[in-house]
Amino acid sequence: MLPGMQPDAAMTVADRDDDGVADVTDNCPDSKNADQGNEDGDMFGDACDPCPQLVDTAIADKDGDHIGDACDPNATADTGWLFEGFHTGLPGWPGSLGWQAAGDSLQVAAPGEPAPDGEYLVLPLTRQGRMTFDNYSIAMSVTIQQPSSGTDHEVGIELFDDNTDHGMSCEIAEIDGARILWLVDDLMRIPLQELE
Description:
Strand content: 15-25%
Shape: elongated
Number of domains: 2
Order of helices and strands: EEEEEE
Structural class: mainly beta
Number of strands: 6
Number of helices: 0
């Protein structure tokens, strides 16, 4: 360096949310998300995507409830939204031990009949300041990669209220070759539709 010259200033990279990912490559430049999780693979990361499970080209939210119009089941303001993309691994939910995170999904190998149904996960539904959950929706996606060798197969989701000791579930089952969609209210099974 010649006398009287100053060294070049260190080049700074813009990082508005201070998550260690430069704004030019950050899929949520205003929301901290160092993991850059992006369940649906669109241009918005899960941390700032109002529809993280659905590819959408806009962040439209007409009712201002932080649930994007493309996936909002209620046109009026809702009270909350929980999305789990599993890109950071298995959440700390209670459940059986066979579950593993695989990308943005969870996988489990269930033994099938005649082994007892034993694979489960429990999503504790809680929200600070809220005592009841009398109006909400749950959506999940299940892919069966390979059925077990037995003739009976079943997968479903159950909602259970510990306070009232009352539960309900929706299941897809294959029993002796017949495919059935079940709605189960505690111990009473009501077949809704036989699937083809």
